[in-house]
Amino acid sequence: MVNSGAHVPSSANQGDAASLASEFESLSADYQNVIRFAQHRHGIRVVPLQELKGGFTGAFLYLVSVSSPGSGQLEHLVLKLDRPSAGEPDELERHKRALEQAPPDFAREHMAEVAFDRVELDGAIAIFYRIAGESLHGFRPLDAFQQQSQVQAIFSVVNREILTRWNAVAAGFDQAVHPQSLLSRWLTDRLGPERNIEKFFKEVRRIDADRPGLIVQGRVYPNPLLFAREADLWGRARPIDAIAGFQHGDMNVNNVLVKFGEDGANLESYYLIDFAFFEERMPLLYDQAYLEIAFLLPYVATVDFARWVDLVTGFASQDIPDPQRVPIELAGAAAAISAGRREFDQWIRANHMSLTDDLWGQFWLAATAAGLNFCGKGGLSEQQRLGALIFAAAHLKRYCEKFGVPLPVDFAHLYEASHIGDEPGGRTVVSVSPMPATAEPEINLPVQPTRVIGREEETPEADDLLSDSRLDPRLNRDIGRVFVGRQRELAELTAALEQAVSGQGRLFMLVGEPGIGKTRTTQELASYAEDRGAKVFWGRCYEEEGAPPYWPWVQIMRSYVQQASAEQLITEMGAGAADIAEIVPEIRVKLPDLETPPVLEPEAARFRLFDSITTFLKNASQSQPLMLVLDDLHWADRSSLLLLEFLAREMVESRLLLVGCYRDIELSRQHPLTETSARLSREPVFRRQALGGLGQDELGQFIEATTGVQLSQELTNTLYAHTEG
Predict the structure, then answer these.
(1) CB 681 within 8 A of CB 674
(2) Rounded CA gap, 171 and 594, in Å?
(3) What span, in angstroms and rounded, lies between the C-alpha atoms of 118 and 36?
(4) How far is Cα 352 from Cα 347, in angstroms, rounded to an integer?
(5) Which of 235, 272, 307, 635 has a Cα at 20 to 30 A from 72?
(6) What confidence tens digit (pLDDT) does each residue in 287-311 have?
(7) Selection from 299, 313, 304 nearest residue 217 by Cα
(8) 517-538 burial by CB neighbour count: b if 16+ within 10 A, else e?
């Protein structure tokens, strides 16, 4: 390798090396110079035959004709031009190690050879790759393919064969690994202070990198940088068993060369190039996640950023995206990601079924690390770096919710797309411009409407937020009881309400054992919802026999009908009023001229009823947001659950917030709600929050607040041991 201070020979003694093919003259001066120097150093003449792709990170790939005048040889190679980061390891040495250690058949079929020593000059590099036994005609980098079926095929094959062929022998397991240590191994010194990732927080986004939480589109996400740095933030999260083996380390869209057959349907061959970051015995799945974010980021420049963010934040709740449920301009991207992840899931099921949670957890952490890596790439646009950070945060949230890691209660506002332009306090929108660090934040994460007891040391700003006159929290209206703790749960719930108010319907399930505080927490949210201008209606399921079908829904709609005018009901229910009146007869009192609905087959009648109710509730929420509470869902009848599933599929574009409460200990595998919960979990509007007991200090504060008696620490400890909060 030649350092940046090397002297380029003059044209007087270069011969052919001084002559640059005219097709290269559109390149930047540093790339032209490094090509000239490569010609001189290796005694070759390089003529481009075809530009394979210009990468969004600034790299270029060419199919080139390379002649050696001294020997008379000529061959076709792939030329890569790039500007590596400072301190990047030696490509040639790493590439040799990768070839030597890979299974011979995989190395021969899928790993390109380095034809000459890598040449570097003034920060630019030139690398020539040879694909043994293959004509290079027809090979393209991954991001040159636009046909959806081809991209899906690439993601399927590469994801599968990294595990089943390249790592067939090398893969092994590291037992009981802490999640923070995995992030640290993947990211190494990138996590350090004043490195590019931290600078993005401080200098570009102007937010505190040490805040454990980030607000994106009104929802709370863990800060990937801080969680990657500090093991203490993970609480008592259990370690996982992590699979380890060969890691490419830079599985970018330019580093996967692919060739399809003449029909364009059959993937004939693929090769991996650029092993500068190759490592043995590294935690696996980073390459797959790296390829995903490298593939997704170019879309930032071509589609609405808010829609891109919606796709990515969906990974916080759904591992395999449904291309049918994303904007059409992102359907191809979603299909490619789905194809790769389905291969991964099938590999788990075929080989390590008992480790499903741990291996998916390792993938979520790998995606967190890959997103952070791209966040630190200064050559990307600010919007792309922001997108990479959100990608990381979404997958980290997925991990935290699956493994019981508490979400933060201290937040910085990162991104909100409901407004255009710059906003204060680091809350950034479509323009993604930096925000004044000293400005007062516009509140988009609501606070609790009654004073919260406990954990004040974790949220020192709580009193300031509670006194914000814009929220009018009415602190004295505490529904007759003291409310203790639950900041994290309320943050999630109120964020969901804010999204519903803005026109993005949400369904939230609160689950826990009897008496844990599900209903009380929902009452607290309902109080806030009313302060925000929403109407709140409750429906409670009935434990004993005798309740009519749809009983909780009947209660909700009956309450609504009683306070609505006839004109309002006609407008909101439309032609469906007669169908709804079949189960809510109070409607006919206000609309006595309704006709009797036609007699239909049971399934057709049920669909007509569900559609009428859904249309009515969505229409009703347009004039005023609605919060609908379904309490004690573990006692719900089958019809009520089917209606809930139907509404969940249709409510995404509404001002509805549905909150369901149920006891998870009541559910067996055969319970109807178990099946409903599984289906709901696939809906993008769905979130689930499990409630646990109060902390030890909170228990003491609750007793003091309700009885006026301050217990000794010993007695508090005894009570906590018996009650578990």
Answers:
(1) no
(2) 69
(3) 13
(4) 8
(5) 272
(6) 999 999 999 999 999 999 999 999 9
(7) 313
(8) bbbebbbbbbbbbeebebbbbb
pLDDT band for position 428 (50/70/90)?
very low
Distance between CA atoms of residues 202 and 207, nearest Å: 5
Helix (H) or strand (E) holding 127: strand 124-130
Using an 8 Å Cβ cutoff, are 458 and 707 in contact? no
Residue type at 152?
Q
Q: Which two tokens stand for residue 199?
A: 């600078």
CA distance 337 to 315: 11
% of the chain surpassing 90 pLDDT: 52
Distance of alpha carbon 251 from alpha carbon 386, whole angstroms: 20
Q: pLDDT of 367-415, one tens digit each?
A: 999 999 999 999 899 999 999 999 999 999 999 989 989 888 788 889 9
For 485, the token pair is 């703790």
Pair of tokens at residue 170: 């090398």
Edge-to-edge, what's the strand order for the sheet holding 256-260? 140-141, 256-260, 267-272
The tokens 């991996």 sit on which residue? 272
- CB < 8 Å & 24+ apart, contacts of 714-718: none
Q: How far apart are CA 101 and CA 114, in angstroms?
A: 16
pLDDT at 347 over 50: yes
Which pLDDT belongs to residue 18?
57
What does the block give as tokens for 110? 């899928």
Q: Which residues pair with 215 in a beta bridge?
A: 220, 413
> Strand (E) positions, 148-266?
172-177, 213-216, 219-222, 240-247, 256-260
Residues 222, 393 contacting (CB under 8 angstroms): yes
Work out the number of other CB atoms within 10 angstroms of the CB of residue 594: 16
**Rounded distance, CA 376 to CA 190, Å?**
8
